[in-house]
Amino acid sequence: MRRLFHLSAAPAGTPPTQRKNFLNVQIDAIGVGLVSAASPFLPVFLTRLGATNFQVGLLTAMPALAGLFLAIVIGRFLQSRRNIVPWFSGASLLYFSSYALAGLVSLVVPRQYVVWAILLIWAAATLPQIMRSVAFSVVMNAVAGPKGRYALMSRRWSILGFTSAITVMAVGQILNRLSLPINYQLVFIGLWVGGAISYYFTRQIELPDVAPQPHIAGLSLPQRFNGYVSLVRGEGAFVSFMAKRLVYTSGSTSPPPFSHSTTCARCRRPTPGSGSSTPLRRQSCWWAIFSGRARGGSGARVSCSCGPPLACRCILRWWHPLIE
User: Fold this and answer.
1) pLDDT class for 235, splitting at 50, 70, 90?
2) Which of 93, 102, 119, 222 would disulfide-bridge 199, Cβ 3.0–4.6 Å?
3) pTM score of the predicted model
4) Residue among 20, 308, 284 at smallest CA distance from 152
5) In angstroms, rounded to a whole number, what is the distance separating the alpha carbons of residues 171 and 148?
6) How large is the average pLDDT for residues 11-21?
7) Angle at the Cα of 240 (from 307 to 291), degrees rounded to 5?
8) Measured distance CA(184)–CA(274) in Å, rounded
């Protein structure tokens, strides 16, 4: 047990409960890395089943639209809970189970209805996905404490990136050796074990209960909206950060669904190549972490802004002859 606590990378003098939380979060990263390896292959599966560009685009659009309208509502709901850990772990399990459910549905639903059935599953999965996203930062901040954020998150993202990169490459080889659609069905169902690992270890996180925020009654919808606007405007650093993040997110999240489907439809490239961009994106996260440690804040900013574009440039130079 002492050996496991040593591997938790918690700062010196950390209480045993917090050390255990550090370890649970890092093992959770292994589970998330396993199940997230299915993500780049879902749009490929839909394309192989005959999905249109509009249907593939819905995979990205539905979570974004649901987050736009429901994130504040879900945040207020979570703010009224005494302990957020059960909601975080439960939402994670429901969201990760959507991959397994997509594989199961494709086994029983007639071929002409499979695409819309999977999209309906993904529409339902947006609710736990948003809840998990909102709760993630709160849980990680509580686990890390005021002195352990860099140690916890850098190790967590490194573990997640390594696990996901290896799993994606292995899954690509499996998909290439089995026939359609049983290959995707087995992969989506099998990778659910990562969701089970994530649920088990996040459920073991121990955080103290907090007093729920009192609900202010009697405010109309316009008054609540104006209150949120005033609250956001009062945080200039937050507004600046989110504006810059919007530019990066718009460029990084929009192309992937269509790049995978283009790979299948135009390049005639085997399935393993369609997931190769995911490990490269993970590698850029590692680059940011180590550059930040070596050079300080400016190094992290340079690596985050230059790493992904340079990787994409190399990929496009290699890919261009295949498209021709």
Assistant:
1) confident
2) 93
3) 0.73
4) 20
5) 34
6) 77
7) 25
8) 13
Rg of the chain in Å (alpha carbons): 21
CA angle (275, 281, 283) in 5-degree steps: 110
Per the structure block, which two tokens stand in for 176? 């290439």
Residue with tokens 């999209």: 119
Enumerate the H helices of the chain as residue ranges.
2-7, 16-36, 42-48, 53-79, 85-108, 114-144, 149-177, 182-190, 192-203, 221-233, 236-253, 255-262, 277-295, 297-323
CA 51 to chain centre: 23
Amino acid at 264: C
Looking at residue 249, its amino acid is T
Domain boundary assignment for the chain = 2-206
Please answer whether residues 97 and 31 qualify as being in contact, where contact means their C-beta atoms are separated by less than 8 angstroms: no
Rounded distance between C-alpha atoms, residue 89 and residue 24, angstroms: 12
Which CATH superfamily is 2-206 part of?
A: MFS general substrate transporter like domains (1.20.1250.20)
Total Cβ atoms within 10 A of residue 69: 9
pLDDT tens sequence across 108-151: 988 889 999 999 999 999 999 999 999 998 899 888 877 778 88
| CB of 20 closer than 8 Å to CB of 5 | yes
SS3 168: helix
Residues 6+ apart with CB under 8 A from 174: 183, 186, 187
How much of the chain exceeds pLDDT 90, in percent?
27
